[in-house]
Amino acid sequence: MKRNIPHEIEPLKALQEFTTARIAIGRVGTSIPLKQSLEFKLAHAHARDAVYSELAVDKLTSSLGQFCVPVLHLHSQVTDRRQYLQRPDLGRRLNDASLNLLQDYRTENDVAIIVADGLSATAVNENTKGLLDALIPLLSGNGFKLAPMSLVEQGRVAIGDDIGSGLNAKLSLILIGERPGLSAADSLGAYLTYNPKPGLTDESRNCVSNIRHKGLSYKKAAKKIFYLISEAFKLQLSGVELKDNAGLIAES
């Protein structure tokens, strides 16, 4: 028998305006309504597709080339997607050919920007250009010297340490596809590390996440990233000791 329980659902309805999480979806008997059930299955399919999506290499190369710096095509030690998912350690390190390529471009630089597929190349393909269109003018206009940009296949966050160190950059910024969820399969993350070098762990980084059309806008993300980069250079550190006080500064 169908049981209506509006008194349990109604208080949560207002929250739907602020989140795409599955709340207040109702119930039919002991299950959820058919429409919501089908939407859940579709979201799960999108998440799986995102994990196995591939970088649009040609399109991204063209987009990155608009910023007038060399674009390096690099690859992790992973050989295929299955190994990428099973061996995260191999996705954190460059293969020998990529390490050798970096040596040809090793000069003194401020910021090395890295674009890697991560767990959602879909997120990278859809959001990288919009974010960089907002971020690059902030960096260039304030005197930061950009290293060659890197486009990395089968990479994880820590691969930015190899690349930043190899390019002799003071700071690495890796834009990477975040793990898809059931409400977002296209979320881009930005991780910055001051004084990048192999062997660092996550407490050495700062992260700006959920960069996408229905999440954190490109303009707001760019301002937040630029603020963190500026503070990292001022304090000569990143990670847990670098706090995001941009909102407090704006309010004061």
Automatic annotation (TrEMBL):
Pathway(s) it belongs to: Amine and polyamine degradation; ethanolamine degradation
Listed cofactors = adenosylcob(III)alamin
Which GO cellular component term is one of those annotated?
A: ethanolamine ammonia-lyase complex
Source organism's superkingdom?
Bacteria
- The primary site where this protein sits is other
Subcellular location per UniProt equals: Bacterial microcompartment
Pfam families from the xrefs? EutC
Free-text cofactor note: Binds between the large and small subunits.
Identify the residues that bind adenosylcob(III)alamin: V157, E178, C207
EC number(s) reported in the record: 4.3.1.7
What's an example Gene Ontology biological process for this entry? amino acid metabolic process
This enzyme catalyses: ethanolamine = acetaldehyde + NH4(+)
Q: Keywords assigned by UniProt?
A: Bacterial microcompartment, Cobalamin, Cobalt, Lyase
Q: How does it assemble?
A: The basic unit is a heterodimer which dimerizes to form tetramers. The heterotetramers trimerize; 6 large subunits form a core ring with 6 small subunits projecting outwards.
Stated name of the protein:
Ethanolamine ammonia-lyase small subunit
Source organism per UniProt: Mucilaginibacter oryzae
